[in-house]
């Protein structure tokens, strides 16, 4: 019989790739059914771009109504929309039905929150109550152990891009393209000092060009996320021919992968954070990543690090880009995942998650027996 998981969410690429590649599915329950089945995301009705947001599973009402349909709940993303008090209610509902909770700690610091207090309170509830903890890096596991006294199983981030993109060969261009994407200016982003530093350094980097991308909502007056200072600055630099500016709506997956594949270096212009799916996509595509030394980016995959804050932020950043440029001049390619490696990793991740779900369900069964004996 399959283990049925109420996954929060289910449709996110990270979660989808925790299952083995269908053609090479290594484990199955008796009768040929998959060992693990994840319930589909209940439609939220909020946005076609994020059909699982906000996650309806993270309510006690949903748990009570659907408790007979799943064996274990696994929380990944989305709880930033739920108060610590409401999370306690969700946990209480799970306990009332003897349903175990698994938590993957992706973010120790929420990149969307300037103030870490709320996220820490939310993590405090979930980490304390989870039957099993997972995280992506040894550094994050050590931090979880220090802060909450809980051990977490370390499992790597699966691939992000499709097999077709994993196989896509790199194209040797005449220019060394450095990309900074301002996205929608999440709270952890601070791109302008890095842009200014790169513009000053470009004359000493033969063949280098700077491409800056920004979403329409940041660059357009009247939009809720509009940043007048940033948009004016970037537009002025583009008008002067000092950088290439691309303004667009959110990329589709294929558009994002084509963009990253066309860069030699992708800059994570972050002040704080923990792990990164963007970094993972770059590793899939063979694009160098220049990342801050906050969080555990360097533990996740090979990156060129710079100081996230302090007086050496700008100089260390330029040094990291210069290192990537030296590799480019020498014809050295960035470390890149292969299809075979990613498929093997997915099979291993599937087995590891199956084992975690089995342990957590067994533990819930022991609790139930203890309460009835």
SSE blueprint:
Blueprint: E1 3-8, H1 13-16, E2 36-38, H2 60-66, E3 72-75, H3 84-96, E4 101-105, H4 117-129, E5 132-135, H5 138-148, E6 153-154, H6 163-166, E7 176-181, H7 192-201, E8 208-215, H8 216-219, H9 228-239, E9 244-248, H10 253-261, E10 265-267, H11 277-285, E11 288-292, H12 297-300, E12 304-306, H13 313-330, H14 339-372
Parallel strand pairs: 1-2, 1-3, 3-4, 4-5, 5-6, 7-8, 7-10, 8-9, 10-11, 11-12
Helix pairs in contact: 2-3, 3-4, 7-13
What does this 3D model show about the protein?
By secondary structure, the chain is of the alpha/beta class. The chain has two domains: 3-159 and 342-372, Rossmann fold (3-Layer(aba) Sandwich); 163-330, Glycogen Phosphorylase B (Rossmann fold). Helix content is 41%, strand content 14%. It is built from 14 helices and twelve strands. A six-stranded parallel β-sheet has the order 2-1-3-4-5-6, sandwiched between helices.
